[in-house]
From TrEMBL:
Signal peptide: 1-25
Pfam families xrefs: DUF1775
Entry keyword annotation includes Iron-sulfur: no
Bias (Low complexity) ranges: 155-168, 177-198
Protein name in the entry: YncI copper-binding domain-containing protein
Residue ranges of domain YncI copper-binding in the record: 31-164
Renumbered residue ranges of the record's region Disordered: 139-203
Domain of life (superkingdom): Bacteria
Amino acid sequence: MAFRRVATRAVALAALLTLSSWTVAATAGAHVHVSADHAVRGDYALVTFQVPNESEKGVPTTQVTITLPNVASASTDVMAGWTATLDRDPSTGTYRSVTFTATPNAGIGVSQFELFPLSIKLPDADSVSFPVTQTYADGTKVNWDQPPLPGGGEPEYPAPVLSLTAGPHEPEEHHAAPPATASPSVSAAPAADAQAPTRGGADNTARALAGGALLVAAIGVGVALARRRT
C-alpha cells in the first residue's frame, strides 16, 4: 500500500505538470477536467480530476462529489486538507460515487484549482462520463453533468468525459493482491538456508582452533627434542 500511495502521488504530480500549461487561475469558462495515466477500457487506472473555483462571490469550494459508473474497484489517496468517502452499492458491491470534503479552514480558494486522484477499474466502453457536483462554502452547488450539445458543441456545465482505448492492458501481477503468509513447511527451507552461513562460520572456527593446537604441539615437541640433545 505504501508503494501504491507513492505511485499515486507521483502520477498526480505528473498530471499537475501537464495541466500547468493551462490557465492556472480559474476564470469564467473554466471547467472540470479529467485525465488518466492508463485510459484502457476494462483496466485499472489512476484518474485525476481538475476542479477550479469559479465562485463569483469569492468563497472557497468545500465539497466535490464525483459520480462513478458503478465501478468494481475504487480507492482514494490521502490528501492534506480533505477527507474522502466512497459510496458503495450494498447489493452489487460496486462503487457509485466518491465525495471529497474539505477540513476546517481548507478548500479550493479563489483563482485556484485542486487535483483529486482516484484509482478505479475503468468500464469496458469507448468512453466514460463522470458527473461532478461542486459545493461552495455559501451553499451554492454547481452540477457538471451536461452532455455535449447536438453537433458537438459544449454546454455551459459539461460533464468531464474520458475517452478509452482498447489496450494494451497492464500485466495482471501489477494488480495482484499481496502474497499470503507462507506456511511453516514452506518457510522451513529458507530458515535452514539462513542458518547455513552460521554453520560455515562455526566449522571454520573449529578448524582454526585445531590448526592452532597442532602448531602448539609441534613447537612443544621441538623444544623437548632440543633439550634432550643438550
